[in-house]
């Protein structure tokens, strides 16, 4: 949660709420995977990212991997950990039979994701409720 | 499937494959909803769109609605059906407790989604496997 706080607002969370959400996500099995890279010496989580597998009817019942919440701890940047997280989630999506993997990011991150073999193919639109 | 073909490649699909995917999507309940607008007089599907609810840890175990595959049959365009589909999927996401709803589209669709109350907040990156 501390690491996710380097990406966006994490908000408050009780252990019970965390456990419940953990169980919910776990119940999706390989359809919702969270990748974590741990620094063995300090036990700190150095990088994380997740992927949600969406099942469609189009493309002969194709699947799409949605990569979300990729972040590397400021202490561990410059070690290509972000690239390793994205590659892991991309490989998982391919193994799950997805025809593509997609993600949304800021324009500043475009060059990083191009290095991960991705191309800019559209824009993201969003509406916040709060 | 015919309508989805106006959006992208649908590919071939047996009835069995369709049924299996239908069951898979149905098993997610309110977490994966497909909205369909039917023209009562002809029985034709005039518009469709879907939303996948993603469960996160950040934002106090927040949820995000991912809107996908919005398309209006060429025969029924100009009747604001696309806006109704997006509004329905947005309302569903809000009711499910999402803090935001997002989607990816081409730059040409930006004005349409702005009319649906959305703002451009980033870019989409993707990698195709086939």
UniProtKB/TrEMBL annotation, chains A, B:
One Pfam family per UniProt: Acetyltransf_1
Top EC class, one word: transferase
Alphabetically ordered keywords of this record: Acyltransferase, Transferase
Pathway membership: Nucleotide-sugar biosynthesis; UDP-N-acetyl-alpha-D-glucosamine biosynthesis; N-acetyl-alpha-D-glucosamine 1-phosphate from alpha-D-glucosamine 6-phosphate (route I): step 1/2
Substrates-to-products reaction catalysed: D-glucosamine 6-phosphate + acetyl-CoA = N-acetyl-D-glucosamine 6-phosphate + CoA + H(+)
Record-given protein name: Glucosamine 6-phosphate N-acetyltransferase
Enzyme Commission number: 2.3.1.4
Gene3D superfamilies documented for this protein: 3.40.630.30
Matching CDD domains: NAT_SF (cd04301)
Subunit structure: Homodimer.
Residues covered by the N-acetyltransferase domain: 1-130
Family to which the UniProt record says this protein belongs: Belongs to the acetyltransferase family. GNA1 subfamily.
Family annotation (InterPro entries): Acyl_CoA_acyltransferase, GNAT_dom, GNPNAT1-like
């Amino acid at each position: 949660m501390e690491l996710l706080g380097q990406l966006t607002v994490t908000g408050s969370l009780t252990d019970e709420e965390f456990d419940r959400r953990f169980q919910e996500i776990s119940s999706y099995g390989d359809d919702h995977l969270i990748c974590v890279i741990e620094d063995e010496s300090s036990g700190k989580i150095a990088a994380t990212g997740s992927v949600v597998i969406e099942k469609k009817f189009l493309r002969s019942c194709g699947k799409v991997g949605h990569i979300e919440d990729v972040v590397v701890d400021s202490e561990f940047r410059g070690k290509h950990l972000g690239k390793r997280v994205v590659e892991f989630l991309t490989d998982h999506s391919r193994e799950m039979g997805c025809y593509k993997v997609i993600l949304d990011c800021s324009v500043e991150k475009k060059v990083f994701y191009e290095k991960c073999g991705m191309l800019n193919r559209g824009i993201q639109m969003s509406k916040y409720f709060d």
